[in-house]
Structures are given as structure tokens and as C-alpha cells.
Amino acid sequence: MIDAQVHLWEPESKDRPWIDSARGSVHRASFSVADLLAAMTAAGVAKAVLVPPSWVGGWNETCLDAARRFPDRFTVMGRLDVERPLDVEALARWFSVPGMSGIRLTFRRPDDLKLLHEGRADWIWRGADELALPVSIYAPHSTGALGDIARNYPAMRIIVDHLGLDLGFQDATIKDAVDRLCALAVHPNIAVKATSLPSHVSGGYPFPILRDAVTSVVRAFGAERVFWGSDLTRLTCTYDDLISFFVEELPDLKPCERELIMGKALEQWLNFPFEAVDTNEGAHPTTSRSGSKPFA
């Protein structure tokens, strides 16, 4: 299993102050590679894609250090400063850093949305298209714009984060957002991260609303373009329950589709080859749910 999104970050310091505009998203003081490895081992998760959280700005080093130390466990979708354009050669050098697999961008706050809609991020699309880079985008209120970008830059591999759901979308409001997302399936260069989903429902496992949402997305995009993941530090259930939801509570999926969603499709999209990793034999929630407490 490969988790499509986990944040890693260090405590705020004088040398590394957090971004004021993103402080509202901070939900714990830090989350270390040791914390993550312990959680992954307990849940039987082999690998994870690391994403710096928004409040650290463009500081990718914490995640890249983890990927360098544990190259068989981690790869990184790094952040770029949209307002500091790079030419294609410079972008290629940025991407060539060991452990880097692509770009992660967030367009949710008003100032960030201006960057998207005023074309100031176009230099990223041009460079990513020329280099055929994966770009993971969280823009829950601008789903339509992602379709235009995909059409104009067909070699860029786009990943839509969190099924396109805003942090405030809950229960019945999920369906309209999922319908908008599914309209993007006509673009073969768009894939989807099915991440952070339990935070969007008020009920607990087995998340019947999420069952319909995920099934609709898989039928629209195909399992080869849907990647499960946790967004672990924001997870409102146990890691085991989330995994069991994807493994046990989606009965319409064929075994080959489930294998793609749980990791094979993501490794192909990111060119992150899967090799066997010892994740502590005996801890395997894909066969039965455990009673572990929520990881929060």
C-alpha cells in the first residue's frame, strides 16, 4: 500500500517561522518522520508521498530529508513559490533533487486564487508540460479551471487533491463537488487523490456516504487514475479504519482495481517504483479491522 498524502513538518522556530496566512490550518505542533514510520508500520503501509504543509511555505527540506534517509519508503511532492517564476531549465534542476517526484500547489485562499485565475501560475503549467511533470493541485473552488489547464497542457500530469472537496464540505454537500470532479475525467492527464475523506462526513466507519462518492469517482476516472491516501495528521478515524474502508467496504471494485487504487496506479503516475518493504509482519489491517485509537 502507498499512502498518497502525508504531511511532515518541524516545530516553528525563529529560523523557520510559519506563514501567517496559513496559520489557521495548523492542527498540531509537528509531525516527525519517526511518528510517521511508527504509524505506517502499525498499519502495514509500505510507502507514502510526503507533502510539506501550507504553513511552512516553500520549505521542502524536512520532507526531502526523510526521502533521502528512507528512499524505499518516501517520495516528495514539493512546493514552489508561484510568484517567483523559474524557466524550464531551473524547474528541471528543482525537480532533479533526490527524493522529488513532482509539484504540490494550493489554491484555496483568496490571494492564492488570484494567482490561479490571473494566469500568474502559467509558468508552472508551461514548464510542467514541457518536462511532463506530475502536479498535485488543491483548488476545491476552481475545479473547472483545472479542466482548462489540462486541455491546454496535455503532457502535464495533474492530480486533483482530496476529491476536490473543500475543508468545509460535509455529508450531503459532497455529492455536488464529486459531480464537478467527475466532469474532469474526460481529460486523460487528470488523476484524483481520494485523500482526507473521513473528515468530510459526520458518521463513523463504514462511511456509507463516502462509499457512493468513491465508487462514482472510480467509475468516471478508472482505477488507474484514483489514488487512496490518508492525510494522516487530519484523519478523524483510525488509520486501520480508513484502509479497511478501501479494502472491505467498496464491494463493486474488482481485485485488480483495488490493487491499482491502493498503490500500483500512484507508483505509475509518479514513476515511484514499488519494492517489497517489511512493514512488521502480523500488522495487516487489509484482512481485518483493529481496535487502534484514532491517530490525531
Write a compact overview of the structure shown.
With 296 residues, this protein is of the alpha/beta class.
Question: Taking all residues together, what is the mean pLDDT?
Answer: 90
The number of distinct helices, counting runs of at least 4 residues, comes to 10
Q: Output the CATH homologous superfamily.
A: Metal-dependent hydrolases
Number of beta strands = 8
The name of the CATH topology is TIM Barrel
What would you call the structural class? alpha/beta
Low-pLDDT windows of residues: 281-296
Query: What is the 3D shape?
Result: globular
Q: Strand content of the residues, in percent? A: 5-15%
Structure notes:
The protein contains ten helices and eight strands. It is globular. It is α/β, with parallel strands linked by helices and 296 residues long. The protein has one domain (2-11, 23-270): TIM Barrel (Alpha-Beta Barrel). It has an eight-stranded parallel sheet. Residues 281-296 have low confidence and may be disordered. 35% of the residues lie in helices and 14% in strands. Strand 1, helix 1 and strand 2 (47-51) form a beta-alpha-beta unit.
